[in-house]
Amino acid sequence: MHGDQNTREWDLYVILSVTHRLPVDLDPWLEILGFLIGDTGIGVVQGAAAQKEARDWVFTQHPQLRDIPAVPDFAEGDDAAMDEWANRYKQRYGQTLPLRPLPQARQVHRTVLEATLALAPSEKVIVINPDDDPGEVIDTIADLHDRHTASEREEPDDPTPA
Fold this sequence. Notes:
The protein is built from 6 helices and 4 strands; from the N terminus they run βααααβαββα. It has about 160 residues and is mainly alpha-helical. It folds into 2 domains: about 10-105, no CATH class; about 125-155, no CATH class. The longest helix has 18 residues, at about 45-60.
C-alpha cells in the first residue's frame, strides 16, 4: 500500500474523525474526506454526506480500527481528554496510517443540493431564493419537484398563430 502514488499518510487523530467521529477542526476533516472521495473542493454538507462511505473505505484499508471503541462523551472543549484518548490508539496503531482514495469508479461528486438530499428527505429541505420577494412562500425540494414534474406533463401552448 505504501508504494501507491495515490497513498497518503494521515494522522490517526484525523482518521478517527472519519471512523469514530472524534471531534477535529473543520479543515483537516474536510481535507481527509475530500481526499478519500476524490473531491478536494467539498464543503461541510458534502463532507457529511460522504462520511459513511469514507468511514467504510477506511475500515476496508485498516480493519484493525474497528476494534477501537466508540468515542466517549467528552466535556465540551476538553481537548486534553480527546488528545489522551487518541494517543492511546496512536501508541497501539501508529502516529499515522496510509490511506488511498476510493477507486475512481466509486467516487461520487455531489453538489451541495445533492449532498443535502442525501442527508435529509426532500420534503424537509427548504429552498430559499434570495432574489425572490420577501413575501413569497418558501418551497421544499419535494414541492418544487412536484411542480416541475406537473409542468412537464402539461401540453405546451401551440406556437403557431391562429
